[in-house]
Each structure stands twice: as C-alpha cells, then as structure tokens.
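Journal club prep — side note

Before the paper discussion, L.F. wants everyone to see what a predicted structure for a comparable chain looks like in token form. Sequence:
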Amino acid sequence: MGETSACDRLAADLRALREASGLTYSAITTQAKKQTPLVKLGGSKLSAWFSGKNVPKKDDDAAFRYLIQLLEPRAKKHGVPPKGIDWWRARRDEAATERTPPAVPTKAAPYPTTLPAAGPHAGDTAKAARLLRLLPLDGPWLRWLEDAQTMFKVPLTVSDLVCDAHRPLEKDLPDYIDPELHDAHGALVTALAALCWELNGMNDISDEGQPVLEISHPGTSAERNELNRQACQARDGFIPAYRTMINLLNRKNLLPPASLSPDALPRQAGPKGTPPTRSDAARLRDTAAEPHPRTPRIGQGMPERARELRQAHQALAHQGLGEPADEAWEHGTTALQDFHHTDPGEPDWVLCLADDHPPVAVAAPVWQAITDAGRADPGQDALAAIGFPIPPADDGAPWLIQTDVESLNLAGGHWGAGRLTRRGNDDWTWEPRPRFSFEQGRSATAWTSGQTPALRLRVVLNLPWADTDGLEITTQRRRDLEQKLPYSQLAGAMTMLSKRRAADLPAARWTRTPSYNSSRSLSYQCTLTTTDGAPALHAAAMLSLPMTMETSVTVCAEILIDDRDAWAALLQPDWPTQLTLEEAQAVLLGAWETAAELLPEAIGASQLRWSSAPTTELRLSSERPGPNGVLPPLAQVLDLTLFGDGDDHRPGMAVTITATPCLAAEDRRNLLRQALVHMGRAFGYVDVDPDALR
C-alpha cells in the first residue's frame, strides 16, 4: 500500500482535532459568524477541508487560523496537546504543494501532411471548457448519480458540485454559436435547475456526522417516498441531458483528449454497478485541477429554508438585494444569509427570516450595530440577547432597513423588547421598551440590616453595565458628590415632607455611614432627630460596584419615616404624619432621579454599554412591628385612598420597571404613575384610576 498523501494526512489531523474539541460543524460556523470582522467558515468549506476534497488556500489564512485557534484550546481540555498555528500551516503548505503537479513536457505535433478541417468557433470552445470545469466528465459526482438506486441521501460532494454549477451555467455568456449546442445547453440548464430545486429542498445533516443531504420527513412514509420519486425523476432527466451535451461536444471536436477515456464517458442510468478502473489521465486531472470558485446559492447551507429565502430575495431584489455573499446560516429558529448590494458601491445586506415576523434585509452597518449592542451579554451571543428587527407596520410584507435609519425596534432576545437608536458620531444605544414585573434583584433589601422604619419609600437601580473593571470611586468624585447631595432631588423630597406640614427642616447635613464606604462602594445618610436624639426622618443614598454575587452596579436612594411620634415632635401640633400618595410619588421621583443621574457620577460612568436590561425597583413598605409582633398595614402610614377599594391589610407593595434609568422629567413621571397603577392592581386595588394619580 502506498504512503498516505499530505492532503489526506492534513484532513485526518483536522478531523481528529475537531472530534477532540467536541464542536460540530454548526457550532464552528456559528462561532465564526460572531467574530468581528466576520470569519467565513461555512459548512461546505469545512466539509471540503475535513474530507480532504479541498486544501485550505493561503489567501484564506484568516479562516484557517481562526479554526485552529478555536479547536486547539478545547481539544487540550480532552488531552490533545496543541501543535500551534505554524505546525498547521506547514501541513497545509505541504498538502497544497502536493496538489500542484510538475509541468509535463509536451511533444511537438508532427507537421500535417494535409490541411486540417475548419475547427469549432473559439467562443464555443471556451464555453465548452467552462462547462467541463463546472461539471467534469471524470468526477465521482457523475458516477454516484448514475449508480444511485434512491435519492434519500445525497453526498455533499455531489450536491455541492451540481448546485454550484447551475447558476454559472445559467448566466454564462455569450451563447453558443452552433445552434445544436445552443439548444442542448438550454435543455441541460433546464434539467439541472430541476435537479437543484430538489436538492435545495433536502436537509444538511453533516452536523450529525454524515456529510450528506437527506430528504426531509414531511409526515408519512408515503409522502417521503413521493419526495424521493420526484428527486429521482429530476436526476433521471438531468443525466440524459448531460449525456446529449457531452456526445454533441465530442462530435464537434470540443472535448479535450483526457475526456475521451472510456471511464470518463457518461453511462446509462440504471442498476447499481461497479465503476471501471480510473485512467491515469483522469487521476492526473483529479490531482492537478484547481477547485472551481464557489458561488454561494440562495439558501446554501440551509436547504430546509432555501425556498423561504428565495421568496424573500425575490420580493426585495428590486430594492437593491443582489447576489448571495456567503452561505445561509441559522440562529435558533431564525434563518440568515449575507447578500451583496446590486450597486457595488453600497454596503451588503443581511437577510433575516425570524419567526412571527416578515423577512427583513438589514444594511450591513446597521446589522453590525445590532450585534455590537448585544455583544456584552454574559452568554456572548448578541442575537440571543438583543433579538431581531421587527417591522413598524404589521402588514406581513418583506421590508428593508437602510443605512440611514435612525432607530429600529428589536424583539425575541432574552433582554426583552427594546429599541436601538443612533446617537452622535454614528454611536448606537440600546434601550429596553418600558415594561413592568415583580421580579427583584439581589439588592432589593440590601442596606436594611437593623432597621425597622415605620415607612420606607425606596428606589433600587440595577445597572448591568459592561466593562466596569476600570470604574472606581475616586477621592475627588466622592468630594464632588458630598457637595451635591444637600441640593439633590432626594434632599429636596425629604425637605418637602416637613414643609408641607409648616416646618422648615432642610436635609442639609449628609454624612458617611460607618460602613459600606470604599473605592468600590459608597453610603451616605441624612437624619432629622428630636432634641433628645431620637431619629424621625432619614434619607439614604448608596452605590456598589459589581462584586462576586452581584454582577450589576447597584444604586439605591430612599426616604424613611423612622418614628412617627419623633417626627410629630418636630412639627406643629395636630399635623398628620401619614403621607399622601401624592407625597409618596414625589419622594419616589426624587429618589429615582438621584439614583439614576447623580450617584453614578461618583464612578465616572457614562455611555457604557449594557450587558442585560437595566431595572428600577420601587418599594413601599411598613417595617416596624406592632406590640403583637405583626407588621402593621401599609395603609396606616400611607394614605391609599386614591387607589380605591382593595386589600388594606398588606404591609408593603413593590414593582419593577424595566426601562432606561435616565429619562426626561415628564417621561419619568408618566412611567412612575403607570408603574404604581400596575402595582396597585396586582396587589388587589383593581379599580385604581390612572387619572387619580396625576
């Protein structure tokens, strides 16, 4: 037995590396598409490399290098030591050299004794050569089609070659000069189109270890058998058309000599037989021939979605959607494919077919903004986080997102629905679409140890910013904050509570708490006390950078009524210490603005990307137990009359707002009112009137 070729050794090494890494073709392709710039590693390219059909080219070094750097660290975890990119490049170069045979000297043709007959037209000769390059006579693809009893499974080496040949042959110009060749070529292209249509409807199951297309399972065996019959019929229509074309080329002296060997001629399709021994000339051509350039097809790589992609492309082609730029790929249940613009000077498109939404073609710069916006997600899957574009109008028609769009809506990601908006300098910002829930973060009750206030009105912000490692609370920023706190909206809200009761008790003196102050956290308080030192009103502002158990920046601002009797002692006689719902709204607004806009200045946070959706938690709670040890109803310390009839025995209520934390004053006021209505109805006040909270 002869020595294994360098090409086979490279392919075997690549297969062993992939198997050790545990990654499938689909996983490799998906990871490659997440890279910036995009790494083009489609399923067909990987299949050709791993099978030894093609050798990675030097001008495709970026893809080859990425493949090795992706697989080796994972294979190392399973006991396969890395060899390094230089070793792999040497293997690749050796295989490439082997694929390039030395030039074979040719003998000079003898001087003709008679004048030759007129040869075929040069244009027809060139066109025939292009046909034979795309559909070579001595290729194993043809033998497989002739011998196959069924078409339930078709090797990718056959389907890729056949389908890749269709569009170049269909678009090949100029036409044959010879009328017989012209007609035969037209019949061949028609038969080839029918065969490709059947192949494109099959499923690529190479990720399961079989590099084949397989007929789908539509439901019953009878239906699947019918699909096989249709595929066989298309195959049986193609082979005679191909045979007719080849015989005609031969009769008109347009076949090169190597094509005339007995094993290179098409056989009659029929029962499976044993192919004859290959000729030396055919073997030499297999070794010497350069792979023909691959022209991506619409839906290539996702045959089960090819028809949908073709229909979407047809609907949008008149608006600038040109030829495919790469294979189709999937993200979950969404099918995507890159396309060129019909104007070579314009950016490419990404055609997106997401469930429950009409097809959309997104200009490449905007698509890049979408993936950049979600790239900081801990799962490192931008599209799974941020979702896909949704149309402004729900008419079901395919649509486009041009490069000049200023904003677009997104949905379907685990961040929830959101909006991507263009800022200055072509920067884009993602913001969640406002919504309400009752989910609480880890810090919902942080900084409350040892406290039992009569009433707590609290706002907690969970700010999941990316790249927070460099943030810290510097000495200068801490000093700046200490100067601003007495003039903050939180201080103003605390002062307002007493002013509405004819008492001038400003929240002017803010001090650091005994704990929770460092370069990564801050905590300040302002307390109004009676003459004997009993706390009456208390305001607090806290911030903490991410730690082991908390991945978000957490900010809190709150006002507490520590003791209603102590507060009453600071007021004129007969003034009530029960707050109105209007006052509670004012306190929550002041706390929200302070937490969202003032406190983050202490860490220098500005224009940071999100790694998930930010939330704002509102909490209204009665926390001082009565003599019987039971917490009193919230309604005792907060007048809930505006909520209407409901369950007045609850000691507290809370609601979470998912929205951008920094808002215009009127937008924040409206969102707060909507959140309180949502909270009230969920906690039993089903008749709450939004207009009553204005």
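L.F.'s comment for the group: DSSP finds 19 helices and 23 strands in the chain. Keep this in mind when we get to the figures.
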